[in-house]
Give the backbone structure.
Amino acid sequence: MSLVVHHNVAARFARLHLDRAQEAIQSSTDRMSSGYRLNRAADDTTAFAMSMRFGSDLVGLETVNRNARNGMNLIGAMESTSGEILRVLNRMRELATKNATETMTPTDRTEAQIEFVALQDEIQRLAQTTHMNRVQGLAVSDTMTFQVGAGGGAANQVVLSLRSMTLNALSIGPGNADINLMSHAQDALNKIDTALSRLNTRRSQMAATFTQLNAAFEVTAGDREALLNTLNVIRDTDYAVESTNLAQNQIRSQAAVSILSQANTIPQLALQLLQA
């Protein structure tokens, strides 16, 4: 080996490995302090891009999960109210049945009519006051769309056909149904039966939509967990690996410093030759 002073190849080589060890130590420190394996695109360009895309998909899945849950909550509220409307209709039917017979006196019919009107008002109140976030579900006839998929289009939506359950929609309002007279009570019985049939049909539609929303919720919840696990593998720090890397690179760094110190003494041999 030549003995020169201008180019200390051994020292430069040791310095190169020292720099690499220091960079690796810095990388491990960044990962362990942040908890993320990917802190910048330079760490792994492809994986970084994937993690950004997966992160956006995860936000979308979390949002549609909330959409499905909110839809189920709204349908649950409507179903609860529908059950109460059913109870009121059954009582109205009971009163109409009583007044549809000759054994009732005019006074009895008047008293039954008072309760009948109160029950009509209660149905109207129930239909108009059931809502979530100011969205009414029993006082309007319309369609309600729930976004339950991360993409666009009908395949990512569940649609509920709403049918109003107000007195007019059920055709049992004060102008359509009363039990003041026996003949009116008999006519009211038919109208109440029709209202009961409509109510049951609408409850079946709500139950079917609830089932769809629940299925969509379970699917997106599973997709979310799978995506989250994948994202964790790509993005998060494996502390077992990084702690091992850190210890290894600290040893390499210390060894490089020791070798660099020795390499820097090689040119001094030239001075010994000159002194001789």
User: Anything to note?
Assistant: The chain has two domains: 9-35+237-275, 63-234.
